[in-house]
Design goal:
about 550 residues, alpha+beta, Beta-Lactamase, Helix Hairpins, 4-stranded antiparallel β-sheet, 15 helices
Length: about 550
């Protein structure tokens, strides 16, 4: 059997709905800035509410509002309005983040300096609120803007202190407090900016790692879903945790997550129970459709009963077919070698028979014997040709074939070369059916089926003697070509040997035609079979299989 190579197919995949949902659920990078701004807005609202409440009920706790109660009340009320307005801006996300944060922090600095002035200057202790404002600026703003807010707040603080000095109502300690507060503001700004930088770097790294993990998880899921091998994960209680598309297709069950394996797939549940008891793999059975392999996801043998179980399901027919192909490939190579060696002595025997026939034309007995030599030599030569062809099946090149037009051209050629009337073969095919097959090999397969049908049909009846019908099954999405004749059919006791090499019901046959036809169909991922019928005649059908796992657009 010739080896077959296929050109790899590459296909660009767009995100699946689940992948798009996962991408949409990823946190926005701006959340790292908007959320801290919301916290700081809440802090502003609380502070302004406390000041507004104290001012409006007339409870001026010393030294709050001790210098100018009216200014303190006006500033507190305005500050509360700013706090409420800031939440509205935050909800709208307009203007942009930097514009909001910078403007509000600048207003905070002015409001706190006014509150501090109305309470008697730096001695009121309200200057500590500027430290909170500057710290927030360092966390929320870039370094340059944070230092700008710090410089403006420090200048406002010095201007406030200079005013007290100009009116002569100042103590030496006030200058010390103002200087220390200014230094504290710049120190706070520097520290908070550095902390914010590190926090952003850590958050960016965490987001990158999280994105990589999500992509890896999605990639793994995509690979598992597209595997030809079925994969089922069950919990220690026997509940289905995950099942891919191939597992559902091979078992013919939905396998919903959370359902007991014993309910969803009883046959698998029996093998699963046996594996849990003996810790040995299920023994392959003759004629089974699925081959099951089980394994524990636990790392230690002692934990097997408590861990999830991984169940692999393979198409046993495909495995058996692959093994058969390998076996037949070796057998084909051997038989081809033997046939090649037989060819030389066969040619010598045939030539000798021809020479004896020419020399013994006057001897009827010799002529009859040489005729036997010639006839059987030709038969052996046909067998050798079939064996050699079986051993050197060429690589197939499947192509889309519009079956109606192709079949019409094929039938015209066949009837012409075999000198048959057009009414001898009746063809019925839909106009929109397309199959994927190597055209030359399909020609060889149908030619062999028609040869058998014409040779075994009852030509004493009315035409058509042979009927070719192409149908499509919506249930399994497969196209089928049926070739039926009106002959005696095939005895039931011979059906098991029908596709066996060298089995034939004709004296002149080699018994390799149907076998080679079936191999050609198998190479093209199709199936050649005999359809049992109670009526007279034989029916052979070619089933063009769709890919086991449909390609789906992601």
């Amino acid at each position: 059997m010739g080896t077959q190579t296929q050109t790899p197919r590459f296909r660009a995949l767009s995100p699946t709905p689940r992948r798009r949902e996962a991408a949409d659920s990823q946190p926005d990078n701006t959340q790292l800035s908007w959320q801290p701004l919301a916290y700081y807005n809440f802090f502003r609202l609380v502070v302004s509410s406390v000041f507004c409440m104290l001012a409006n009920i007339g409870l001026f706790l010393k030294p709050l509002g001790g210098h100018d109660p009216q200014l303190f009340t006006t500033t507190a009320n305005g500050y509360l309005g700013v706090g409420v307005f800031a939440f509205w801006l935050l909800w709208r996300r307009k203007p942009a983040f930097l514009t909001q944060a910078t403007s509000l922090l600048f207003i905070d600095s002015i409001a706190i300096i006014l509150l501090m002035h109305s309470s008697g200057g730096t001695g009121s202790g309200l200057g500590i609120l500027l430290v909170v404002v500057i710290a927030a600026g360092g966390l929320l703003l870039p370094r340059q803007l944070a230092l700008l807010i710090t410089a403006l707040a420090t200048l406002g603080l010095l201007a406030e202190q200079a005013r007290w000095w100009l009116i002569g109502d100042v103590q030496p300690a006030d200058f010390t407090r103002a200087g220390l507060l200014g230094i504290a503001l710049f120190a706070t700004a520097s520290i908070s900016v550095e902390l914010a930088r590190r926090a952003r770097a850590s958050a960016s790294l965490a987001a990158k790692r999280g994105s990589e993990l999500r992509n890896l998880a999605l990639l793994n899921e995509e690979i598992i879903q597209r595997m030809q091998t079925g994969v089922i994960v069950t919990s220690a209680d026997g509940l289905i945790e995950h099942a891919n598309h191939a597992a559902r297709q091979l078992t013919g069950q939905e396998l919903p997550t959370g359902e007991a394996l014993a309910v969803a797939a009883p046959e698998l549940a029996n093998k699963y129970s046996g594996w849990q008891e003996t810790q040995t793999q299920p023994i392959p059975e003759q004629g089974e459709k699925m081959r099951t392999t089980l394994g524990s996801l636990g790392r230690r043998e002692a934990d097997i009963q408590q861990n999830s179980t991984l169940i692999f399901i393979d198409d046993a027919t495909a495995v058996a077919q692959q093994a058969q192909l390998m076996k037949m490939a070796s057998l084909g190579t051997l038989t081809a070698s033997i046939a090649h060696e037989i060819r030389n002595p066969l040619a010598a025997i045939t030539t000798a028979g021809e020479l004896i026939k020419e020399n013994g034309r006057e001897d009827p007995e010799a002529e009859a014997l040489t005729e036997i030599i010639s006839r059987h030599g030709a038969r052996i030569n046909r067998i050798i040709e079939d064996i050699l062809q079986m051993g050197r099946l060429r690589e197939f090149e499947p192509q889309p074939i519009v079956i109606e037009s192709w079949l019409a051209e094929f039938i015209d050629d066949y009837l012409l070369t075999h000198d048959l009337p057009r009414s001898a073969v009746e063809v019925s095919a839909a106009s929109d059916l397309t199959v994927k097959f190597d055209p030359d090999q399909l020609h060889q397969v149908l030619g062999n089926l028609l040869d058998n049908a014409v040779q075994h049909c009852n030509k004493a009846t009315e035409m058509p003697w042979v009927t070719i019908k192409v149908t499509f099954s919506p249930e399994n999405h497969k196209t089928v070509i049926r070739v039926a004749d009106n002959g005696p059919g095939i005895p039931k006791d011979k059906l098991t040997e029908l596709f066996t090499p060298f089995f034939t019901t004709r004296k002149e046959g080699t018994g390799l035609g149907l076998y080679i036809a079936r191999e050609l169909c198998s190479n093209n991922q199709a199936e050649l079979s005999y359809a049992a019928t109670n009526d007279e005649g034989a029916i052979f059908q070619i089933t063009f299989n769709r890919p086991r796992q449909q390609e789906f657009s992601l």
